[in-house]
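Q: My labmate handed me this sequence with no annotations at all. I'd like to see what the chain might look like in three dimensions before we decide whether it's worth expressing. Could you predict it?
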Amino acid sequence: MIGYGATARGDFLRGLVGERFCVRNSGALAVAEGTGDHGCEYMTGGRVVILGPVGRNFAAGMSGGIAYVLDLPQIRVNREMVDLDQVEEDDAKFVREVVERHHAETGSAVAARLLADWDPGPVHQGHAQGLQAGAVGRLAGRARGRDINEAVMAAAHG
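A: Here is what I predict for the chain of 158 residues:
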C-alpha cells in the first residue's frame, strides 16, 4: 500500500506497484507504471499518473482528485463515483511534464518510450462526481453465486 493517506510530496515509482496504490490520497502527486487492484480507492485529492495497466475496481470510492491513466480499459474502473474523459490541452501539458519529471527522477524506460513518441490521445482522466456509493449490488451479486470479480465489476457499471 504505497501512498496511503498522502497529503503532499511526489512519489515517482519505476515499475508496477501492488494493490491499493494511493488509497485515501488527499493531496500528493504520484506516478507509477501500473497498479494492482483497487488503485486510487477512496482518493479525496491530489493527482495520480498511471503509465501502464491497472487492476480491477480502480477509483472505487474516489470522491476527489484526478487520476490520469494511459490506455485505460474502462471495465477495470469502478464508475460509481467517477467520470472518465479524454484529457484536454492543459491536462495533456501537465501529464507530459510529469512524465518528463518521472523519467528524470527514475530513468524509466517506459517514460522514455512515451516521450519519444508523445501522443496524449490515449490518456484518460478520472475525476470524482460526488455521488454516494452503495454496496448492495456487490453483496447481491456474490450471494447469487457469481464470480467475485464479475460481481464487483457488474455492480460498478450498474
